[in-house]
Amino acid sequence: MQHFAVDAVLLLLFSCLLYLLSSSAAQVERIYVDCNSTASNYTSGSVFEENLNRTIASLVSSSSLSSGFNITSVGQNLDVVYGLVYCIAEQSDRDCQACANIAAMEIRSRCPNQKEAYMFYNNCSIRYSDWRFFSTADSAVIATIYNVNIATDGVLFNRQLRNLLKNISSQAASSPSKYYLGITSHTENVNIYAMMQCTKDLTENSCLTCLQGLISYLPTDLSNVGARFFSMSCNLRYETYSFFLSPLPPSLVPEKNGTSTTPTAKTSGQAGKNNTSEIVLFVVIPAAIALVVIICGCCLWRITRRKRVGNSEDAHEDREKSVESLLMNLSTLQVATKNFSDSYKLGQGGFGPVYKGKLLDGREIAVKRLARSSGQGLEELKTEVVLVAKLLHRNLIRLLGFCLEDGEKLLVYEYLPNGSLDRVLFDQTKRFPLEWERRYKIIVGIARGLLYLHEDSQLRIIHRDLKASNILLDENMNPKISDFGLARLFGGSQTQGNTNRIAGTYGYLAPEYAKKGNFSTKSDVYSFGVLVLEIVAGRKNSSFSNGMNLPSYAWQHWAKGTGLDLIDPTLGDQWTRHEVLKCIHIGLLCVQEAPADRPMMSAIATMLSGYTASSFPAPSQPAFFVTNSTVENPELGLIKNDPGASSPLIYAEAKPESSKKSLNDVTISDIGPR
Q1: Residue range 141-253, CATH number
Q2: In this structure, which topology does domain 2-129 adopt according to CATH?
Q3: What is the β-pairing status of strands 488-490 and 460-462?
Q4: Fewest CB within 10 A of the end CB: N or C in the chain?
Q5: One fold for both 141-253 and 416-653?
Q6: 642 catalytic residue (yes or no)
Q7: Ordered DSSP codes for 173-221
Q8: What are the domain boundaries of the chain?
Q9: For 472-531, how does the pLDDT look when each residue is reduced to its tens digit (9 = 90+)?
Q10: Closest Cα to residue 387, out of 442, 455, 326?
């Protein structure tokens, strides 16, 4: 109860702070709101809500918003909250702070219990989510505001505007502030003023891609003399009057009658406003700072109190509670699956069958029945299940629980109605819904899921068995990475490991893993590259004869300049040329022989969000390269068939470079040191 009392005090003080600052604010107009009803909800009074309150308070604090932009995250695992706020360029600090305060209040009141929401205003925007969206460019136009006035010469105006936006987009992307202003002369007495801006978390390439995306949304017959375009990651504005608050360098201002005109930052009509600003600075701001000090003091007291309780005891209790919350009764799962009836069987994987089930509350589930011969201890399995259950990302399958009764080892996952990617991609009867737009979104979703596993989750996780049959599709065909039976969990800065027992699927194994048992995030990148090429071509890597494989086939076409011949013929001409070539390029980069030559998943995510592949490094001949005349001999050992895979499942003895033994022949994961 004391915790909630402190929270109530913090929230009250925070509300007072918002009121004091926003009471003197300029008029703020809300443009767009989306509470993302498709995202999951949180419970009132939960740890997630507490973290959300802290996130929003931190986002709009005057010290952190001084540059007009702020990102932060609060919490861990399932309860982490990511937040971002930024102000439209050319706003004063006072107007930016006022807009952010109002946005913070409204997003909590208009989107109650939603784990993801974003709102746009005329001066600022705010966004929060339970997944890490930072540094990801999204140029899809969410809102547009047009000036109703029409240019007298629409064709000329449109051409001049596009040239201006093209010029300043590159300047904005390369600028540390991620925004840029520009002017061009339209007629003798009329100029066109424009501004383009990105959120500051974007790289130069991502920002440029976002701004170019906005430009592509401009109608070809556009003749409105002013408009504003808003997306999640960038925005643009143009008018035939100066809306700038800052002066432009004289070199950027068009000359009229031999003289240079520079817009001034403030006009004489703003004198009265300056007096009000001084009052705000000397009265409201000190009061706000005092409240911030009080809030920080309360937070410090709470943190100190928690430390006195005892970290070790709390951690043990939290683990036990997590285990208990995930445990499910065998009888419950037997009822849900009709005692594991064959009619409820969804498929057979390398570690056992998977059954569809329906709980008494109506939830549909998928139950994986692990082989009884699995050698992993119950305590280790409990610990690992708890860790995997804390992985929460829209592109990872969610583990709901587990059961360890009567010798059974059952894992319970969310049920995804569209099954695995390989059945949709390679099944002739189910390929019709997988048009190119869906395929590209699937590739992007898989990349985001892997990026989370490699860099953004609490532990660094290497999947080790990424393939089409381990990608499941939800009702909207969104991909979710599944089957962590071979996953390895690393703590701290550990990025690679070694095993003397190689377990994976032939055709997806990186050469260093297949030959020496060395695995790392780059071995997952190799598997991702094969998967990307399969999605583009609509063919299994194992479908080739005479030892030929898909990376070799793709490389031969790429080297001859006929890369587009790789695309699945069932797509017809309904695909985007630059996206297809970009995916083939990325796929070939991922399957390079040396791990160092393969990109990180963070770089791949940036490449996929980019507009062109002109800045990508050139790929070289892939690993395991063969031609039609080459007979492939993998020499990997015993090959076992996996009915659910697009290639055989491999268990092969290798000679590792170290004497470290693998702890997971068929397990959920291995736990690395923290």
Answers
A1: 3.30.430.20
A2: Killer Toxin P4; Chain A (3.30.430)
A3: antiparallel
A4: N
A5: no
A6: no
A7: HHSTTSEEEEEEE-SSS-EEEEEEEE-TTS-HHHHHHHHHHHHHTS-TT
A8: 2-129, 141-253, 322-386, 416-653
A9: 998 888 999 987 766 665 544 444 555 545 556 778 888 888 888 888 889 999 999 999
A10: 326
Per-residue CA distances from 530 to 488, 523, 525 (Å): 20, 11, 9
Helix (H) or strand (E) holding 81: strand 81-87
pLDDT tens digit sequence for 25-45? 446 788 888 887 766 789 888
| Cα 463 to Cα 198, 302, 348, 356, 519, distances in angstroms | 34, 38, 19, 24, 10
- Residue 330: burial class (beta carbons within 10 Å; 0-12, 13-18, 19+): middle
**For domain 322-386, which CATH number applies: 1.20.1630.10, 3.40.50.300, 2.140.10.10, 3.30.200.20?**
3.30.200.20
Catalytic position from the list 422, 465, 642, 670: 465
Q: How many other CB atoms are there within 10 angstroms of residue 165's CB atom?
A: 23
For residue 513, which of 525, 527, 502 has the smallest C-alpha distance? 502
Least confident window among 114-128, 561-575, 619-633, 647-661: 647-661
The residue type at 36? N
Fill in the DSSP letter of residue 250: G
Start-to-end CA distance of the chain, whole Å, equals: 33
Average of pLDDT values for 249-273? 43
Handedness of CA 637, 643, 644, 646 (dihedral sign): positive
Topology, domain 416-653: Transferase(Phosphotransferase); domain 1 (1.10.510)
From CA 298, how far away is CA 1, in angstroms rounded? 15
pLDDT for the residue 634? 38
Amino acid 432: pLDDT? 54
Q: Residue 31: is it exposed, middle or buried by C-beta count within 10 angstroms (0-12/13-18/19+)?
A: middle
pLDDT in tens, 186-200: 988 899 999 999 999
SS3 assignment for 458-477: CCEEECCCCCHHHEEECCCC
Average per-residue pLDDT for the chain: 76
Determine the residue type at 384.
E
**Strand pairing partners for 640?**
649
Distance CA 312, CA 113 (A): 32
Determine the length of the chain: 674
> Binning pLDDT at 50, 70 and 90, where does residue 220 land?
confident
Q: How far is CA 112 from the centre of its chain?
A: 23
Map tokens 């569209």 to a residue: 418
Are residues 468 and 421 in contact, defined by beta-carbon separation less than 8 angstroms?
A: yes
Structure confidence by residue, pLDDT tens digits, 517-540: 888 889 999 999 999 999 999 999
The model carries a pTM of 0.51
Q: Would you state the torsion angle of the CA atoms of residues 132, 137, 139, 142, taken in this order, to the nearest 10 degrees?
A: 20
Element (H, E) at 167: helix 154-174
Question: What does the pLDDT look like over 165-179, one tens digit per residue?
Answer: 999 999 999 999 999
The two tokens of residue 138 are 């999204």
d(CA 144, CA 447): 30
CB neighbour list of residue 630: distance below 8 Å, 6 or more residues apart:
546, 547, 548
Instruction: Tell me the C-alpha distance between 439 and 433, whole Å.
Output: 10
Largest CA distance in the chain: 92
Rounded distance between C-alpha atoms, residue 646 and residue 117, angstroms = 39
Q: What is the mean pLDDT of residues 327-341?
A: 92
